[in-house]
Design goal:
- The chain is built from 11 helices and 6 strands.
- With 315 residues, it is an alpha+beta fold.
- The strands form 2 sheets. Strands 4-5-1-6 form a 4-stranded antiparallel sheet.
- Helix 5 (103-109) crosses helix 8.
Length: 315
């Protein structure tokens, strides 16, 4: 009895599949029409979309981490004295990566008119020679009203471009990726204006390196004075030898930090721009258009068939 019921269920499933394919085949011209329309919309988008290029810059850390004498106890004394003992060299590379997207760096970049007027081009008014709130069109008003209805969030007051806004734009538009084998850091941007992107990436590297250099010169002077003071009164031969090495090392680092040129990171490759646009991806857009068109067409055919069957059953 159970085997008979199972065979009836299998037969029913097979009939349903046959009917499904028959329905889709009957509506093949409608499916083809909807797929063609979806493909046409995808092609229209590609013809009107802005072409973006990828600008890439590769950065390497300057120097290598140097192992020095273990002066953990002096480090504790230095902390009590309010002195920060610098690490310098490649140990500052992670700090370099974090500082590049910080508001502190953006504060320095706000003085660069080319960067500010390019990043916030839609808000710059040549007539007033200032940033002004861009006019919101009907679409913007509708979006604002819908957002308020759904979330209760009212539109915020206009905020002129500043360090916080610039840091947010840089954080979102500049991608960082570090090669685990070489330690090289790659910076990239997908932009329409590749010339400006190349300028901005180089500016980020140079200004971040300069900030770390200035900070090191300041902290290095404090550390050097601390070492020199300790070597005078320390009676341990081992500590005196270690302090002498540390003094020589810090003097060398300060000399390198005082010279022109990179301190923590330097550009080794680029900036280079991709030969062809990397966005939008034409093949992907067209493929998605076809797939979505097919699914939408099949859905329309099945819904239409179900409605017809329902009307027939009522009659």
């Amino acid at each position: 009895m159970q085997d008979h019921s199972q065979s009836e269920q299998d037969a029913s499933d097979e009939i349903d599949l046959v009917e499904l394919f028959a329905t889709l085949w009957a509506g093949k011209f409608l499916i083809l029409l909807i797929t063609t329309l979806a493909l046409a919309l995808g092609a229209f988008y590609l013809h009107n979309a802005e072409r973006k290029f990828t600008v890439k810059l590769t950065v390497s850390q300057v120097g290598q981490e140097q192992s020095g004498p273990n002066l953990a106890d002096l480090g504790g004394l230095a902390s009590l004295a309010g002195v920060s003992l610098p690490t310098g060299g490649s140990g500052d590379f992670p700090k370099f990566q974090a500082l590049m997207k910080s508001e502190e760096l953006a504060m320095k970049l706000t003085d660069d008119h080319r960067i500010m007027r390019s990043v916030f081009a839609s808000e710059w008014d040549d007539a007033q020679n200032a940033f002004v709130q861009p006019e919101r069109g009907q679409v913007g008003e509708i979006v604002s009203q819908v957002k308020y209805a759904l979330t209760g969030d009212e539109a915020t007051d206009y905020r002129a471009p500043d360090a916080a806004r610039l840091a947010n734009v840089i954080s979102q538009s500049v991608s960082q990726s570090e090669d685990n084998n070489t330690g090289f850091l790659s910076l990239s941007m997908d932009v329409v204006d590749s010339e400006f992107a190349a300028y901005l990436l180089q500016k980020l590297v140079v200004e971040t390196d300069n900030m770390l250099k200035e900070d090191y010169i300041k902290s290095g002077s404090q550390a050097l004075a601390f070492y020199q003071d300790k070597i005078v009164c320390d009676r341990s031969q081992e500590h005196r030898e270690a302090l002498a090495k540390m003094i020589a090392s810090e003097e060398q680092k300060q000399m390198l930090a005082s010279r022109d040129g990179p301190f923590v990171a330097e550009v080794i490759m680029g900036p280079s721009t991709s030969l062809t646009p990397t966005s939008p991806k034409s093949t992907l857009v067209l493929a998605l258009s076809i797939v979505l068109g097919l699914f939408l067409g099949m859905a329309v055919v099945l819904v239409r068939s179900a409605l017809k069957n329902k009307e027939t059953a009522r009659a």
